[in-house]
Amino acid sequence: MPVNAGYEFFEVEKSYLEAENVEDKIYWLEEMIRKAPKHKSSENLLAGLRSRLKKLKEQSEKIRKGKGGKKGIRKEGYQVVLVGKTNSGKSALLGKLTNAKSSVSEHMFSTRYSEIGTMDYEGVRAQIIDTPAIKSEYYDVGLVNNADCLLVVVAGLAELDEVGEWLSRARGERIIVINKLDLLDNNEKRKLGERCKSKRLKNFVLVSSINGEGIEKLKEMIFHKMKVIRVYTKEPGKKAAKDPMVLKEGSRVRDVAEKILKGFSARIKETRLTGPSAKFANQKAGLNHVLKDKDVIEFHMD
Fold first, then answer.
1. Do residues 160 and 154 touch, judged by C-beta distance below 8 A?
2. What is the mean pLDDT of the segment spanning 119-138?
3. What is the rounded average pLDDT of the residues 23-32?
4. What are the DSSP calls for 112-168, one per residue?
5. Three-class SS of residue 249?
6. d(CA 251, CA 124)
7. Would you call 288 helix, strand, or coil by DSSP?
8. Domain 228-301 falls under CATH 3.40.50.300
């Protein structure tokens, strides 16, 4: 046990020891790894915790397979998980957001396995997953807890508290998606929007997974949660590339060059920039210039 571990580590360890199922143990063990001191004398401790975590995840996978579930989902890039009650319209929403063809049914708990799709928003991709409904025996708490962002899908405001009880350990950002807007007339939609504002709900959107109303706004909200920027490269005398390079917010000109090719920044003689971070078109920019979304960058070589 590390001599210099803080009280937070021991509090989390206590919760780990008291956990009654594998998924809870995985959650608290990951918290122990986060809270553990990071210095040379704690390397053996961290190695032991990570080894224990690997075994628990293997055990969790065996349990999932024993229930007839699919193989564990590999996280690819930014991961968004849809969560909600049965018949909230999650499966149809997955189809509207992505290229996935998820089965839709009026029966309770019809989604038994997580379904995966890819959302493409103006050149930026995100992995979107429809997980089995809360209260289902196939509900994947591990997937929900570790997602980058949760789409909390409800058919009405009354469902929020009930769904929220299943998300107490989820770490990701949240967007409240109030679905089935197609069942409301314009006056009812207006009143629903006002109720959301009066409750001071943050990050909510009204959508219909049937007619697509509000879907583009939802995609835009997901994009902003990703905290990335799109930068378009341009060769001298030619048009800007059709597909953007996707980088983290706060990235600099040097990051673009190095993403093209390691060591490429050392070969650049001059950089020209057009877009939100430039004061004017074709502005000269240094390698440490901070970029903004939808900048167009042109490199000149020796």
1. yes
2. 91
3. 82
4. -S-EEEEEEETTEEEEEEEPPPTTSTT--HHHHHH-SEEEEEESSGGGHHHHHTT-T
5. coil
6. 16
7. coil
8. no
Instruction: Identify whether the C-beta of residue 213 lies closer than 8 Å to the C-beta of residue 202.
Output: no
Strand 79-84 to 124-130 pairing: parallel
Separation of alpha carbons 92 and 222, rounded Å: 17
The most distant pair of C-alpha atoms in the chain lies apart, rounded to whole Å, by: 66
Pick the CATH number of 79-226 from 1.10.3080.10, 3.40.50.300, 3.30.2000.30, 3.40.50.620: 3.40.50.300
pTM (two decimals) = 0.76
Question: Which of left, alpha, beta for 68 (phi over 0: left; psi -120 to 50: alpha)?
Answer: left
**Beta-carbon contacts of residue 6 (< 8 Å; ≥ 6 apart):** 35, 37
Determine the Cα–Cα distance for residues 288 and 252; give it in Å rounded to an integer. Answer: 5
Q: With contact defined as beta carbons under 8 Å apart, do 123 and 230 qualify?
A: yes
Weakest mean pLDDT among 133-142, 185-194, 206-215, 223-232? 133-142
Q: Kindly indicate the confidence band of residue 42, based on its pLDDT and cuts at 50, 70 and 90.
A: confident
What is the token pair recorded at 265? 């920044």
Cα–Cα distance for residue pair 136/102, rounded to 1 Å: 18
Domain boundaries, the chain: 7-66, 79-226, 228-301
Beta pairing class for 173-178 and 149-154? parallel
Read off the pLDDT of each residue in 219-243 and give the average, rounded to a whole number. 94
Percent of all residues in the chain with a pLDDT value above 90, rounded to a whole number: 61
